[in-house]
Amino acid sequence: MSGPPRTAQDVIESFAIDRASPIPLWFQVAQHLEQAIAAGDLPQGTLLDNEIALAQRLGVSRPTMRRAMEQLVSGGLVARRRGIGTRVIQPKVRRPLELTSLHDDLSAGGQQPSTAVLRFETVAADAEVAARLDLDERAPVVCIERLRSALDRPIAMMTNYLPAALVTFEAEDLTDTGLYELLRRSGLRLHSAAQTLGARTATAAEARRLGEARGAALLTMERVTTDDQGSTVEYATHLYAASRYSFEINLVR
Amino acid sequence: MSGPPRTAQDVIESFAIDRASPIPLWFQVAQHLEQAIAAGDLPQGTLLDNEIALAQRLGVSRPTMRRAMEQLVSGGLVARRRGIGTRVIQPKVRRPLELTSLHDDLSAGGQQPSTAVLRFETVAADAEVAARLDLDERAPVVCIERLRSALDRPIAMMTNYLPAALVTFEAEDLTDTGLYELLRRSGLRLHSAAQTLGARTATAAEARRLGEARGAALLTMERVTTDDQGSTVEYATHLYAASRYSFEINLVR
DNA sequence: CAGTGGTCTAGACCACACC
DNA sequence: GTGTGGTCTAGACCACTGT
Asked: In Å, what is the separation between the CA of B229 and the C1' of C13?
């Protein structure tokens, strides 16, 4: 049922660009190109036309076309070389991952995560939490403790502190939805997260809770997350059963 | 000894832009701004002039000024809001970190790393290595095993596989210089690294080598690194003594 | 040499925030 | 309203690559 082979020119000319849309033109162009590469319409190794020709073909200016290309380069989908041209490279199954949370990770992996909220209350920040969140001591913060399970086995103990003003949701929302997703829904735009990943052996109590043997290896994670306005949004300390969870991280540049 | 307080305008007008330099103008502008923020000449909370005024003041066009600003935004140094302006935010000591290696990490931390090269030889890729490096089986690869110490105590066992064609250095070079640095010197531009971080307890042999107790927690890291042309450059499996090393990672966006 | 991406310019119009 | 950043255009020159 596959149609006749299409040239790269044909594929690109078929892109539908909507100038009335609030989505920037360069982003629409980039999206179409990413999709065409992912779908195999622009196979690995394809040498694209030069910027000017592509821009004309799509009816946009060269800077707009360039902006779209820069997006693809930073995503590792094409390689550009001066004097040579732009070539499609391996559409590797690199996970795009950047700022995600465990819930997102597990959902994407089809692991059907479930979450038990063990604690959800507003408290006064102690010295440590205040320092991490860049707040005054005794400022109101919400402390959240959750036990995350996958396939009905516990996999992580998670403690999070957030400035009370940011918590526009309730404990029940956390059973179905990840914390990051809830923050995004309230209009927060996350910018960066500084994480420290380490390991240690489990105490008896931790092993019991996570269903691991005593002395089992645990992954530890400490994280401070910042929004695009430079405000600190979250301080988290998590504990993972290392036998059943590992972090996948993609660093770019 | 500090001079009279300078206004943001004064600070910015003092930037020296070199139009003859091969360094792009927008990058020069961004560097000057980053430095001024780091030095406290543009303190946290400063509201900068609008783009057009700044561009005029520095003698560049508005798109060039914008490119510099975008650099600062992605670095988390300023926040921009439409209709409001551009404000300097916390010059937090976020490590810029991106693609670094353990050697760089330790050097930056003043830990005086030393490295013993245990193995450095060209072998035929087995199925696993070939798959990770995207090579044919039995293709020539260089296998490197190193023991990295800090302050004279072993801290990591590192195994790396590289396509033989990329190895333009010798075993001795690795005692003084990190692997990533050597690759960069040979003209390689690294683009992304997919890492998996996990943990497990040490075997007797591993514990002995790393100077840890039997059953101690180890951090494990597996990594595939790619250059800006989409070629796979390195496959690594590392083992860290978790009692003395943890990963610090900055995720952006 | 001709062709490519890399950089820069001088304008324009728009969406949004505050008064 | 006015002022801000966000987007887009049409052109120009340069540096690098391969012939």
From this structure: 38
